[in-house]
Amino acid sequence: MNIHDDAHEHHDILIVDDNPANLELLSGMLRHRGYKVRAAPGGRLALQAAQKNAPDLILLDISMPEMDGYEVCKRLKADEKLREVPVIFISALSETFDMLKAFSSGGVDYVVKPYQFEEVNARVETHLKLHRLKTELGEYNRRLEELVQEQVKEIFDSQMATIFAIAKLAESRDRDTGDHLERVQAICHSISLRLNESSRYASTITRADCENIFHASPLHDIGKVAIPDAILLKPGRLTPDEFEIMKTHAAFGANTLRDVEHKYPKNSFIHIGIEIAHYHHERWDGGGYPDGLSGEGIPLSARIMAVADVYDALRSKRCYKPTLPHEESFDIIIKGSGTQFDPEVVAAFRDTHARAT
Fold first, then answer.
1. Distance of CA 342 to the CA centre of its chain
2. Residue 217 CA neighbour count, 13 Å, CB half
3. Quick check: helix, strand or coil at residue 114?
4. Last residue in a domain, options 115, 138, 167
5. Structural domains counted in the chain
6. Please, what's the largest Cα pairwise distance for the chain?
7. Which of 27, 260, 311, 355 shows its CA 20 to 30 Å from the CA of 339?
8. Tens digit of pLDDT for each residue in 91-104?
9. Do 80 and 229 belong together in one domain?
10. Are strands 36-40 and 57-60 parallel, antiparallel or unpaired?
11. Which of 53, 84, 47, 92 is nearest to 66 (CA)?
């Protein structure tokens, strides 16, 4: 019996692999799921096919003669018509170096051969949905510029719902996160409002900034959509190489949002979303990642998110740890003042969360 999803038949997937058997196998499996599939046995033919008719998603091998997958991906990203097309690498290369090179060349995900088809199908569905939501976000922004003032709030609410859906899509791969996004939103909002009331930060963080931080905070871990399940859902401690891959989610998420900022450079909400996604794992003492920033060199929005994210992570059950009570989690945040966290942000957190909420 043919498994055919009508929602899939409009999605055009281009598969690039110099091995005919691989092409035939993967093409057949995806067609069986109702996708429109095109196959290209090499990089140059793939570029020609994509330029003639842009696909919705590309599955790309790395080790190919004449032009490897890295070069193909770089050329796709250099083409204005094709740069937004998500590229998932499927390769037998399994070293950290190969994966990092794939992400740096523009790939959104990486699947190691031999693979389970259900894994490939899940990744395909995830990135097609993410690509669609990202496109819709751009369309909502264009509409926003054209609408009269009385329509702005209605469209703004639609944008926030779409953005939250994008963040939820990234979060949904982790079964233990629960309502993490909603909780960090509330914590970020209370901290930012408290800072707005303080004499030191009253002129630094406005009420509009507080609202932008509230709405942008769910985007902090959107880059985790690019992290393989074997690492993201690993129940034990990550190896150094695995942790290096995990750390790429910060820059990946920020770069995804920069694509939107490039089109809408005056959008302060997107700018704050980039700050939060990129820098929320930096530490006050300079020992964080990805850039090793310290002190007030870290954007304030990210310093707020750092406290909210760690507190909620401590309070939440994860595949690698049990939940901690409020009192213990609260004490850990307070003790991190001046080392891991901004002392002023910790003070605002202390004032608003001394009791469990």
1. 25
2. 29
3. coil
4. 115
5. 2
6. 69
7. 355
8. 999 999 999 999 99
9. no
10. unpaired
11. 47
Q: How far from the centroid of its chain's Cα atoms is residue 231's Cα? A: 15
- CA-CA distances (angstroms) from residue 333 to 279, 299, 313? 18, 19, 11
Q: Is the pLDDT of residue 356 over 90?
A: no
The verdict on residue 131 lying in a domain is no
Indicate the pTM of the whole model. 0.58
Helices (H), the chain: 20-32, 43-52, 69-78, 96-104, 117-146, 152-171, 180-197, 207-216, 229-232, 240-263, 268-279, 300-315, 326-335, 343-353
Residue 160 has pLDDT above 90, yes or no: no
- Return all residues near 149 (Cβ < 8 A) that are at least 6 apart: none
Under the banding of pLDDT at 50, 70 and 90, the label for residue 78 is very high
Residue 209: give the domain boundaries.
149-353
DSSP string over 315-345:
HS-BTTB----HHHHHHHHHHTBTTTB-HHH
Among 93, 115, 137, residue at a domain's last position: 115
